[in-house]
C-alpha cells in the first residue's frame, strides 16, 4: 500500500536512545488521511510521539467501509524499497499485483507479505465484483541493513497458525506467540497477532519482555492493562512486560504488534526506506526515470508519481518527537 500524502514527511527512525526501557501506557494519536481515490484511513505509525514499535514502521487502519456504490480501493502502481508490507484484512477482498508477476486476491485472515528489498512495485485494488465491506490494516516492517538490498519477494499464506484461550482466538501473522509460529519470513525479531475476543473475555497473553509492544483496536472496545480503548485507537505498551491483560464486554477485534527495538538509523519518506536523504532522492529519481523498478503486469501507462522532495535536506528526528 502506498503513502499517498502529497507532501509526505520525512522521518528518521531507529536507535535505542528514546526506546522505553520499562512498561508504558501511551495512547498514540493517529490522523485521518485519504488513500488512493478517496479511501479514508487512520494513520497510527508514524505519529506524533512515536515512529517505530520494534521494526514496525507504518500502521494504517481502514474501515469498515461500505463499498456498495463505489469501486473501492484503487491504489495504482507505486514503488517500495528497504521494507516489508504486511496486508491484513478483516473484511473484504484486495487484488494484489506486483512487478514480480504476483497476481492474487487477498481475503480475510490471509497473510500477504511483500518484501521490497532492493526494489519492487505493486498495485492494490478492490476486485470489480467485491464484497460490500472493506476493513483491515496495512503495515510496514523496516528491513535491517543486512536484508534491505535483498531480492524482492512475495508470500501469500492462506492458512495461519493460532490458538484459542479464555475467550480469545489468536491468529499469528508474524513471529511466534503461545507456541504458534507464522510461516511469514521475518528479518528481525518481531511479532504480529490478530486477536478476536468474545464478549466478556478476560485474558492474559504472554509477551516477550525484551520486545516493545502496541495494541490496535480494529473494532469493538477493549480494556488493555486497565486503559479503555475504542475502535481505531492504538496503545503503546513499552518494554519489560511478560503478559498483557485484555478485557471486553462485547466482541472486539485487536491487533498486537511488537518486536525487538530497532537499533539501526533509517530514513523513511513516501514509500521508501533508506539510510540517508541522498539515498531516498536516488530512489525517487529512479522511479521517475523508469530505472531500478520493473513494471507491474496488467497496467499500461499511468502509475503514481513520486511527490516533490522537500526543499531542505531530509532531517533526522529520531524515534520520538
From TrEMBL:
Keywords: Iron, Metal-binding
Domain Pirin N-terminal residue range list: 42-141
Cofactor note: Binds 1 Fe cation per subunit.
Protein residues bound to Fe cation: 78, 80, 122, 124
Domain Pirin C-terminal stretches: 193-290
InterPro entries (UniProt xref): Pirin, Pirin_C_dom, Pirin_N_dom, RmlC-like_jellyroll, RmlC_Cupin_sf
A GO molecular function held by the record: metal ion binding
CDD domains, per the entry: cupin_pirin_C (cd02247)
Cofactor requirements of the protein: Fe cation
Pfam families for this protein: Pirin, Pirin_C
Family: Belongs to the pirin family.
PANTHER family in alphabetical order: PIRIN, PIRIN-RELATED
Name of the protein in its database record: Pirin
Amino acid at each position: 500500500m502506498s503513502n499517498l500524502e502529497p507532501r509526505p514527511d520525512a522521518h528518521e527512525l531507529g536507535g535505542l536512545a528514546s526506546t522505553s526501557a520499562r512498561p508504558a501506557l501511551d495512547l498514540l494519536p493517529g490522523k485521518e488521511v485519504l488513500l488512493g481515490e478517496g479511501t479514508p484511513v487512520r494513520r497510527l505509525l508514524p505519529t506524533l510521539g512515536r515512529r517505530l514499535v520494534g521494526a514496525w514502521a507504518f500502521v494504517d487502519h481502514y474501515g469498515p467501509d461500505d463499498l456498495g456504490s463505489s469501486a473501492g480501493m484503487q491504489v495504482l502502481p507505486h514503488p517500495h524499497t528497504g521494507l516489508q508490507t504486511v496486508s491484513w484484512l478483516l473484511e473484504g477482498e484486495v487484488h494484489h499485483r506486483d512487478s514480480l508477476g504476483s497476481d492474487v486476491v487477498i481475503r480475510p485472515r490471509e497473510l500477504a507479505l511483500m518484501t521490497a528489498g532492493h526494489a519492487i512495485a505493486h498495485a492494490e485494488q478492490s476486485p470489480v465484483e467485491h464484497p460490500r465491506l472493506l476493513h483491515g490494516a496495512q503495515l510496514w516492517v523496516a528491513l535491517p541493513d543486512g536484508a534491505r538490498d535483498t531480492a524482492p519477494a512475495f508470500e501469500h499464506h492462506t492458512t495461519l497458525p493460532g490458538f484459542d484461550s479464555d475467550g480469545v482466538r489468536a491468529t499469528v501473522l508474524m513471529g511466534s506467540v503461545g507456541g504458534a509460529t507464522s510461516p511469514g519470513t521475518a528479518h528481525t525479531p518481531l511479532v504480529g497477532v490478530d486477536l478476536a475476543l468474545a464478549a466478556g473475555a478476560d485474558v492474559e497473553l504472554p509477551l516477550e519482555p525484551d520486545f516493545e509492544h502496541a495494541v490496535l483496536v480494529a473494532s469493538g472496545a477493549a480494556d488493555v492493562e486497565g486503559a479503555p480503548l475504542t475502535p481505531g485507537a492504538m496503545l503503546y505498551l513499552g518494554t519489560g512486560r511478560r503478559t498483557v491483560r485484555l478485557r471486553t464486554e462485547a466482541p472486539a477485534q485487536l491487533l498486537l504488534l511488537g518486536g525487538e527495538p530497532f537499533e539501526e538509523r533509517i530514513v523513511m519518506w513516501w514509500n521508501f526506506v533508506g539510510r540517508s536523504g541522498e539515498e531516498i532522492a536516488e530512489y525517487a529519481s529512479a522511479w521517475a526515470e523508469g530505472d531500478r523498478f520493473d513494471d507491474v503486469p496488467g497496467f499500461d501507462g499511468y502509475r503514481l508519481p513520486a511527490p516533490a522532495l522537500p526543499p531542505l535536506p531530509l532531517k533526522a528526528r529520531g524515534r520520538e518527537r
